[in-house]
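Supplementary Note 3. Input sequence used for the single-chain structure prediction.
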Amino acid sequence: MPIAAQGGVDGNGLAKTIRRFNRFAEAGKDQDFGRGEFPFANSVSGDLTHKPNPNLGPLNAPPYYGLPLEPAAKHAEAE
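The predicted structure, written as discrete structure tokens, is reproduced below.
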């Protein structure tokens, strides 16, 4: 996968992750992060014509984008 190589990500691992996510999208429920479990969210947000879940769609049509994420600590002091 070109985007994986450009981002320094293992292409096979990315492809495996996308296949897994697409299975979740087809089922309408994300088993990793719980998206699709709350009926209220599914009735007021996303593409309400998309079934089985308006908030989950497969990753099967470009364009695709990637960006680096790095951990950061944020501290705010209350007075």
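The chain is about 35% helix and 0% strand. The chain has a mean pLDDT of 85.
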